[in-house]
Hints:
InterPro entries: Acyl_CoA_acyltransferase, Gcn5-rel_NAT, GNAT_dom, GNAT_YJDJ
Enzyme class: transferase
CATH superfamily: Gcn5-related N-acetyltransferase (GNAT)
Distance between the termini: 28 Å
Helix content: 25-40%
Protein name: GNAT family N-acetyltransferase
Strand content: 35-45%
Domain N-acetyltransferase: 1-93, 6-93
Number of helices: 2
CATH topology: Aminopeptidase
EC number: 2.3.1.-
Amino acid sequence: MEIIQENEEKRGLFKAVEEGKEAGIMTYTWAGSTKFIIDHTEVNEDFKGKGIGQQMLMKAVEYARANHLKIMPLCPFAKSVFDKNPDIADVLF
């Protein structure tokens, strides 16, 4: 599984790809220069139950930590993962 990040000036995404197929996508919107809002997570039906959403979120956390950023999880999935994992709360806004 490869997680690819595409970052633009105002928006971005993390995309999970396996064997050339898009397994999932997590989109975000920049809220200033120090934080981004995860606003949507979607996993392809063929990949449900494989932890794809969790892998994309952990890539977002890794990116936030490496770049001293904060995350606002407005997406219900992302918020639920943050609620269950206090070890990643350091990047919460």
